[in-house]
Model the fold of this input.
Amino acid sequence: MLEPWKIKGRCEAGCDEAGRGPLAGPVVAAAVILPHDYRNSLLNDSKQLSERQRDTLRTEIEREAAAWAVAVVEPEEIDRLNILHASTHAMCMAVKQLSLKPDFLLIDGNRFYNETDIPYECIVKGDAKYMSIAAASILAKTHRDELMVRLHNEYPLYGWDRNKGYPTLEHFNAIEQYGPTPYHRRSFNLYRQHTLFES
Done:
């Protein structure tokens, strides 16, 4: 069972992102404030859950959270800022969109560039430790996956409905055959040697 808060009685927002590693698509961040009495034994790091579990939890989190918000940073801005700055910028955007201002931010990871006036703490593997960060990881992941399926419908040759823009052999092969799309991150290495994947 994850911890419901870092300090009891404090209004804390958990923050996490999805999409730092892909070659294409946006980075998506979420911020979530859960009620102090909220409990769910299934809640965990989104990477440890099935797609069906994530979708079920997303519906519950969006219904039960005291406040939640999702923000998107597009590939052009990722290329301009770099992926670390783009990820933390997305988190700050999500925090600023919350209908309730938190007293403190719980940030998944070890680096954060704060664009708010709210104090924070970085927590490595925080999505496996605190419920609010796990909830944010689920919202970020499910919202991004949904976006990538929509982009797949626009550019169906790259398998984004399956790989969600991540660097799979299928994705690299499609880039080599068809070239990059407007949704590809030009600052990333979009071309790899197939021998890297043969071992």
In short: The chain has one domain: 12-197. The CA atoms of residues 54 and 159 lie 21 Å apart. The helical segments are 51-64, 75-81, 83-97, 131-154, 160-163, 169-178. Strands lie at 12-18, 27-33, 67-73, 104-108, 120-123.
